[in-house]
Write a structure and sequence with these properties.
The chain is an alpha/beta fold. Helix content is 30%, strand content 18%.
């Protein structure tokens, strides 16, 4: 099959990003709370997408692994260094505090009161806002849903009822941006 060749050297790759700003120009102040996400690879992927969409902060809560875990770092490809993040044991406490500070609280969850994400308008999402994504199996904690200003879902057309949490976050981040 031939030899593998390195197309970009490290020095050339470093030069190509030299003119980029140190901090992205955020259109809005969005953050995301990861409520008991089990998979380190999903967390790393969410960090990478959060960076790509200009999210200001990632709150890792409950059993969610942090970038102290090698699998998170490996998947995030350095995004843990460009998006601020912190860890909190209790998601409800973090969300309650952010709500009291004026954040609009949004959850991504299939729920009796959720509306299709694609039906949001710019007026629906004010800044600052916190998007909550939940556990891959159990979803967003019901106590958190009670704190939400809005609950959105991604319409599903196949047999499965949900997307992978990292994919779902990417879809939501794109639509909300």
């Amino acid at each position: 099959m031939g030899k593998t060749r390195v197309i970009l050297s490290r020095s050339l790759a470093a030069e190509s990003t030299h003119d980029l700003p140190d901090t992205p120009p955020y259109k809005r102040e969005y953050s995301v709370a990861l409520d008991n996400i089990r998979s380190a690879w999903n967390v790393g992927s969410i960090l990478r997408s959060a960076d790509g969409f200009g999210y200001a902060h990632v709150y890792m809560c409950g059993i969610t692994p942090t970038p102290d875990i090698e699998a998170v770092k490996k998947t995030s490809l350095g995004a843990e260094n460009s998006v601020t993040w912190d860890y909190h044991k209790n998601t409800v406490a973090v969300v309650t505090e952010l709500k009291s500070e004026g954040h609009r609280i949004i959850a991504l969850e299939e729920h009796d009161h959720s509306i299709p994400l694609i039906s949001t308008s710019e007026q629906d999402i004010s800044s600052p806002a916190l998007l909550i994504v939940g556990n891959e199996v159990t979803g967003v904690d019901p106590h958190l849903l009670g704190l939400c200003d809005a609950i959105y879902h991604i319409p599903m057309y196949g047999r499965k009822k949900s997307f992978n949490v990292a994919i779902a976050f990417g879809i939501a981040a794109y639509i909300l941006n």
